[in-house]
Amino acid sequence: MELSDIKTFAAVARTGGITRAAEELNTVQSNVTQRIKALEAEIGTPLFERHSRGMTLTAAGKRLLPYAQKMAALSHEAVLAARDDGEPKGPLAIGSMETTAAVRLPPLLADFHRRFPAVRLTLRTATTADLVAAVLDGILDGAFVAGPIEHAELFAVTAFREELVLVSARRWTSLAELRAGTPESGPTALVFRTGCTYRQRLEQVFVEFGWPSAARFELGTLDGMIGCVAADMGVTLLPRAVVERSAMHGSVSIHTLGASHARVETLFIQRRAGHQYSALTGFISCLKKEDDVIAA
């Protein structure tokens, strides 16, 4: 069983398709297809069901996936451990939710770069679900995700505490006004793609407000999200700090929610069994060094 085939299998399972897996692995689609076919031939059973929306795991694929994830992650760790001589240097791949990357990370990343200039840090933004999968697969060395996260193979520490707020166009000055002035089904929910914890929280808020059938509109960027809210296209749920530091802050209204919906922790996760190599240890030391890093 070739390790490259296993890594390719894990990438297709994570991304749900040949095209996206090829982009992630920086290779051509034909190479991904060939490796999947070779692995299926070696095992003697299909690992994916092919359909118009992409590829989903068969029962055999689901059984293989946790082993593939461990093998890919261990391979990544083995290379890093062999290269590690105790001085932070070389590549370090960190993931983050876009909202965290936009507001919370710049001072931390600047401090890390000043202290450890020999480390080649890359930052990837994605949803919490995608980031967790990437850490488990060894694609990322660590990631900032929305809590809570409970997984036997992950170690998590609290990095930031956020207050989530409902954000609407400026003409809605209160939640009571918003609820009275929108259709019975409620306003359009502006959301990031599936896997975003803030999207899940907004779904819960809409159910509580009696708007479970409200329309959903998916957006891919933070600026696009706040811009559409300002244009009165719908409402969204974001950390207060993100909205208040946006250039469009004056064009939207911020509505405070109850503690059950508003409080959320941003966690920094890494694989529990992972090798604590020097570049990652240096990054964590910068995270702990920030005196106000857990401030609301």
Describe the overall structure:
With 296 residues, the chain is α/β, with parallel strands linked by helices. Helix content is 46%, strand content 23%. The chain is built from 13 helices and 11 strands. The protein has helices at residues 3-15, 18-25, 29-43, 59-83, 98-103, 105-115, 128-136, 175-181, 197-208, 222-230, 240-244, 259-262, 278-289; strands at 48-51, 54-57, 90-96, 119-125, 142-146, 154-169, 189-191, 216-218, 236-239, 252-256, 263-271. The strands form 3 sheets. Strands 3, 4, 5, 6, 9, 10 and 11 form a 7-stranded mixed β-sheet that branches. The longest helix is centred in the N-terminal third of the chain and has 25 residues, at 59-83. The chain is globular, with a radius of gyration of 21 Å. Mean pLDDT is 90; it is low at 291-296.
What's the topology here?
Blueprint: H1 3-15, H2 18-25, H3 29-43, E1 48-51, E2 54-57, H4 59-83, E3 90-96, H5 98-103, H6 105-115, E4 119-125, H7 128-136, E5 142-146, E6 154-169, H8 175-181, E7 189-191, H9 197-208, E8 216-218, H10 222-230, E9 236-239, H11 240-244, E10 252-256, H12 259-262, E11 263-271, H13 278-289
Parallel strand pairs: 3-4, 3-5, 7-8
Antiparallel strand pairs: 1-2, 5-11, 6-9, 6-10, 6-11
Helix pairs in contact: 1-2, 1-3, 1-4, 2-3, 6-13
